[in-house]
Amino acid sequence: MAPRHIARYVAVLLAVGLVAAACSGGDDDESASSTVCPTNLVIQTDWWPEIEHIGTYQLIGPNGTSDPETFRYSGPIQEQYKVGGIETVEIRAGGDAISFSPVTSVMYEDSDITLGYVNTSDAAKDAGTNAVIGVAKTLDINPQMVMWNPALYDISEPADMAPTGARFLYFDGSTYVDFIVSSGFMTEDQLDPSYAGAPDQFIESNGGIIQQGFATNEIYKYENEIEWNNGAPADVSFFLIHDLGFEDYPAMYSVRADRLEELSPCLELLVPMLAQAWVDFFENPGPIADALISLNAEYNTYWELSTGINDKALEMFADGIMANSPDGTYCSMDEGRVNGLIEILKPTFDNRGIEYPDDLSAATVVDNSFCAGAPGLS
């Protein structure tokens, strides 16, 4: 047994002992499992409410309360997911809602946050500063993409992007961009890290740029809703960064590394319920998907959802974006895949001067042990 797991086992025993002592001979069901989690479970996401987050919103269901001032959705945890003393859940929007601050930084600034959405690549990047541990996945394949106007650019394989000379618009700090350049898919001269999530630059250029996006969301928007091509929607083409060879897990449920032992008794109970919420959503997506449309309308930002967007995303989920892990659960991260990603990242970190632990590996950024007993998609 690894030292960290020994410490967790001891923590569980201590929690059980403390509660048993407090009960002073009370009912047997007054156990550690009733008190080991925060009463209010706070989850920090990395973007506005979107269907890519929907398994998390499933914890509350469609009848939660929104706060358009703080961009938070909260409510009682649904009874079927109630473990460890959790009574309520608070889901916080990310992106613009937190001034584009890295979720890892926000987690270290606010100890009320139990779980944060962190990509595997970002967990590796911040392992030397704001270290976090991924304890469960949300999606199996990252919908992150690069998209372009096929009527303007003749791109059939990744290497075709560089000869276009097109400006590539993306979020500053995105780790996959260095991989794209080092692979020869684009050049340094094409990079423009001024993207802020809105479609304005794609519209203004009449599709004259290559732009990052989420395939499960923005493909439908640009082809059906956004009037970008001489005042009308039009077809766009894309590559998933996963298919380029950058196999990042998006938005892992993550905890601060310095709180892992403290939270372990809770995570033993909670993580299988997080997976169950994703499985349940997938079997009946309608109610919570519709609720997210209304939630974004209440937040009243540029970010909007629609039935069409959600339906397109669900098609892509069924086509592999959502998939069981090798162990059959909808929970764990494939450590071989994580190690492969880290080996791609290390030269990037070296070039950027990013310090990381000498032993940086899957064991540094993910812990699958809490997925024991988690369900899988049927």
Portion in strands:
5-15%
What structural category arises from helix and sheet content? alpha/beta
Q: Enumerate the strands of the largest sheet in spatial order, edge to edge or round the barrel.
A: 2-3-4-1-5-12-6
Q: Which geometry do the CA atoms define?
A: globular
Structure keywords:
36% helix; alpha/beta; 13 helices; 378 residues
Commentary on this structure:
The chain is an alpha/beta fold and 378 residues long. The chain contains 13 helices and 12 strands. The strands form 2 sheets. It has a 7-stranded mixed beta sheet, sandwiched between helices. It has a 5-stranded mixed beta sheet with strand order 9-8-10-7-11, with no helix packed on it. Helix 1 crosses helix 9. Residues 1-26 have low confidence and may be disordered.
Write the layout of secondary structure elements.
Elements (H helix, E strand, L loop, with lengths): L2 H21 L16 E5 L9 H4 L7 E3 L4 E5 L11 E5 L10 H7 L5 E4 L1 H6 L6 E5 L7 E5 L12 H4 L3 E2 L6 H7 L8 E2 L7 H5 L5 E5 L3 H7 L12 E4 L11 E5 L3 H24 L2 H14 L7 H15 L13 H18 L9 H4 L13
Parallel strand pairs: 1-4, 1-5, 8-9, 8-10
Antiparallel strand pairs: 2-3, 3-4, 5-12, 6-12, 7-10, 7-11
Helix pairs in contact: 1-9
